[in-house]
Amino acid sequence: MIFSPKRLLTLNTFLPRKGNQVARAAGIEFIGASQPSPDVLIVAGPPGSGKTHLLHALANFAKRNEALHSIVCQSAIQFADEVARGLLYSDLDEVLGRYAGEGLMAIDDVDRVCYQSDVADALLKVIQMRQDRNKRTLLTATLSLSYSSKHPLMQFLDHQPAVRLI
Q1: What is the pTM of this model?
Q2: What is the pLDDT of residues 120-158, one digit of tens each?
Q3: Is 158 helix (H, G, I), strand (E, B) or coil?
Q4: First to last CA, the chain
Q5: Which stretches within the chain are classed as H helix?
Q6: What are the backbone dihedrals phi and psi of residue 135, each rounded to the nearest 5 degrees, phi first?
Q7: What is the Cβ-side half-sphere exposure of residue 80, based on CA atoms within 13 angstroms?
Q8: For residue 119, is pLDDT > 90?
Q9: Which of 12, 109, 117, 131 has the most CB atoms less than 10 A away?
């Protein structure tokens, strides 16, 4: 099941704290660019900083970009549920293929699944498939010291561009 962004969370309702305007502007540029480089952007920040709101607002903004024909916007937990169903019904490759084909994939709190190896493996695979297809991927993460997982997903995230909310 592919999820859409929450309609009420828009750029108009996102009121960035002082210092967060840079993250908002970077997200708008990432979504609006005809061919963003790189094609992964992480919105990072502590709990309560507005990551989820900005993720949904940017996904809603992406609906205006004709190049982004379809959008998936969901939490990492919802993604984990899809992976679990894919494993249960032995159609994980099909599930991951759907994610890889979306115009924009926006996943909230990706670092919450770094300790679930099968989910982290699947998310990393999808992100890499999307990169091969030049598809945009927008992620949020806390990226705090408490997430010291050695999983390749976290190592990958550490090397991606991030804008920080405070």
Answers
A1: 0.92
A2: 999 999 999 999 999 999 999 987 644 556 789 988 888
A3: helix
A4: 32
A5: 21-32, 51-62, 76-88, 92-101, 117-132, 152-158
A6: -95, 145
A7: 16
A8: yes
A9: 109
Range 96-106 average pLDDT: 96
CA distances from 121 to 49, 85, 129 (A): 27, 15, 12
Query: How does 34-49 read in b/e, with b if 16+ C-beta sit within 10 Å?
Result: eebeebbbbbbbeeeb
Q: How many angstroms from the chain centroid is the CA of residue 134?
A: 15
Bridge partner residues of 85 (DSSP): none
Structure tokens at 143: 């990226």
CA distance 140 to 5: 14
Read off the pLDDT of residues 19-71 as tens digits, 9 standing for 90 and up.
Answer: 789 999 999 999 998 887 889 999 999 999 999 999 999 999 998 887 787 99
